[in-house]
């Protein structure tokens, strides 16, 4: 997404006694100002986050004999009553998503979720913790040529409260990313629908999400653009950002900036001019056109300059093609992604920024957002 238009001292008072394998005690004499958590405290917070996020991930993995299924036994992490209720609902939602994925011919045989603490502070008996989750899911070979894995990296903020007698209680866990939810993350409540402003732009035609779709293949190389080079660029930089470009990971997100880089790597030429005119598309190191970073502006540029045409069905997208989503049907596009792999059975796999994701199947997107409006572009 992108705009529509566009060490601090250790905590001496924290004792490092762990409870229930992932908790630690907190001294009543702690100061009232924010303090950076020491290493042992941060590691304990990482275990708490890992416990919750791994539980979510396992809700998506194919059941295997002898392995505990998500939600079968209470999680180690102590939670507030409301958060416990919310997490139970999240696990139920993810199980339903697993069923929808199975109906679309997709399953996962294994998963690896790891969590690192980016920042942790404690004020009195309250803690705020920012973490990054790195998860790899292994595709089950149902059709034979699925990718080996899908990977994503997403960021969360946790809130915790110290409890009398020792330990921490998790009261909140919220994503800090702005793109589509990670495959192991429940979909947030729908936001307010924005009224159409009445302005006329080349918005394009929504695509059907019915599977399967009539094939519409294209040559990956040898034409005006090198689609294989686009995919190679995206898969190289999905997690390790290219330092030659600025990041736009704030409120707007980096998704359209990322696909613009990949399209340029495959041969798209700049169109110079003012930054605000959507008919222009360029990046010069210090500035860029709105169409380089804005989801709506990119679509307007692309269609008005005939760089791409809309496809009738999302499953017709091939390597180097672009998919955009309008999550809440308010007439404004929210997110941009590139297809970097397509199976022989006709399943596109997408790579994108915000949330940073590698080879996520189109099926998993539709399973998460069945009511969104989708726009598919043949580049």
TrEMBL record:
Signal peptide region: 1-25
Taxonomic classification: Bacteria, Bacillati, Actinomycetota, Actinomycetes, Kitasatosporales
Matching Pfam families: Amidase_6 (PF12671)
Name of the protein described by the UniProt record: Putative amidase domain-containing protein
The Putative amidase domain, residue ranges: 225-374
Keyword Signal: yes
Entry-linked InterPro entries: Amidase_6
Keywords noted in UniProt: Signal
Region (Disordered): 62-86, 195-216
